[in-house]
Amino acid sequence: MAHAKTSYVCLSCRASYKQPYDRTRQRTCPRCAQPLIHAGSAFATPRRRDVAAWRTLTVLLNAGVGFHKSCCGGPGYRPRTLREVRERMAYAQRSGEPIAYALVRRDVG
Questions:
Q1: What are the tens digits of pLDDT across the range 41-86?
Q2: How far is Cα 79 from Cα 21, in angstroms, rounded to an integer?
Q3: Does residue 52 contact residue 82 with C-beta atoms inside 8 Å?
Q4: 14, 22, 44, 84 from 80: Cα distances, Å
Q5: CA–CA separation, 13 vs 45, rounded Å?
Q6: Least confident of 6-20, 70-84, 91-105
Q7: Is 68 helix (H, G, I), strand (E, B) or coil?
Q8: Rounded distance, CA 83 to CA 81, Å?
Q9: For residue 72, what pLDDT is reported?
Q10: How far is Cα 42 from Cα 67, in angstroms, rounded to an integer?
Q11: Percentage helix, strand, coil for the chain under 3-state DSSP, each rounded to 5
């Protein structure tokens, strides 16, 4: 039986590749030879020219937020704009909550 594929992302090239998941293997970008970041199986790639979406994605992936399927389907809430990211970063700073947790909060108060 074939292994399920998951997404690996190169942030500098703004490219995503679907490959079988292997925890022991470090994947590299075929364009620039930089290491790829494991984004998860529920990842949807933004258009290459959508700079704001890639900036948002960069913050999420560098904070350790992935796009993995949960038991109920999708990965849950993820901010889609830089404004939403800034709101959650400010909340994390105010509340002392870790950034990765604040980024996946639907509501910040």
A1: 889 999 999 999 999 999 999 999 998 876 666 677 888 999 999 9
A2: 25
A3: yes
A4: 16, 28, 11, 7
A5: 12
A6: 70-84
A7: coil
A8: 5
A9: 64
A10: 5
A11: 30, 15, 55
